[in-house]
């Protein structure tokens, strides 16, 4: 039996994970597989229940599970808390505990949603890219201090941390169009100079894959001017956070994009890239497709069920083709209606 920890989280998290778990359970039944879905609190709801954004029981469950499905964490209710006690600290701590050092964010705009993107339709033709973001190092995890009149955050990387995420990016590119763009700020930062040197060294192991280097400011511009140029993008934590959110506009809505946070084994943490959207929480209009597509990534990477993953992706595509979309995509469908449309097509 496979165990999937379900961390619905805050805001719209419970609404979107409800639809995603319905899809996962339906796919498991169709395959004759046994999947146990185990809910647990994390983020703001966990703070309210236990005083901690990542209770020990939740962390231990996730470390035992075959995969973790997350909704979203955070909200204005907890904004005044100190950094280590905020809901987002639970997510950072869970990534660290699970050793998920690489975050994968695929972007491939659906043809029917191209008009929802702020870019001209011709710029989106042929866009099919993946951002591979280093997840457990860099400025988010470095030494920091805040004083009354000054503050600092430290960005630090080891060669080993860079090597493992760059190697994963090259391995992915080998199964795609065989091109890796490594993004850094090597004209200014020593961490980026180390990053670039390690990327060059790893590239020698993959002679069939082309490596290009690009400065992050140039990449931010090219991502909206010629996004189809990219195949696999690999970059450090902060740059990856910003660029992958920028890339989300290519899909028409941030609600469309899934992600997978992976380490060395098959276990992973799967979540849509959007936040908890407290302004629409409880209204039943949140877009669940990013979370459902995260289930497809979970099936493919953690449960080794590629056929089932393809079926889920196809069902989402067909539901969108039929016009079943939420208000963020210009539609009128509810969260539950989108989930039902995917389930209908899976049947």
Explain this structure.
With 347 residues, the chain is α/β, with parallel strands linked by helices. It folds into two domains: 202 residues, 3-Layer(aba) Sandwich (Isopropylmalate Dehydrogenase), CATH 3.40.718.10; 134 residues, Isopropylmalate Dehydrogenase (3-Layer(aba) Sandwich). Helices cover 41% and strands 18% of the residues. The protein is built from twelve helices and twelve strands. A ten-stranded mixed sheet has the order 2-1-3-12-11-4-5-10-8-9, sandwiched between helices. It has a two-stranded antiparallel ribbon with strand order 6-7. A hairpin with a 4-residue loop joins strand 6 and strand 7. Helix 1 packs across helix 10, helix 8 packs parallel to helix 9 and helix 11 crosses helix 12. The longest helix is centred in the N-terminal third of the chain and has 19 residues. It is globular. The mean pLDDT is 95.
Q: Structurally, how many domains make up the residues?
A: 2
Global shape: globular
Main beta-sheet annotation: 10 strands, mixed
Strand order of the largest sheet: 2-1-3-12-11-4-5-10-8-9
Tally of strands: 12
Give the full name of the CATH homologous superfamily of the largest domain: Isopropylmalate Dehydrogenase
Helix content percent band: 40-55%
Question: What fraction of the residues are assigned to beta strands by DSSP?
Answer: 15-25%
User: What oligomeric assembly is this protein in?
Assistant: single chain
User: What is the first-to-last residue Cα distance?
Assistant: 23 Å
Gyration radius over CA: 20 Å
CATH topology of the largest domain: Isopropylmalate Dehydrogenase
- Which parts are unreliable, with pLDDT below 50 for 5 consecutive residues or more? none
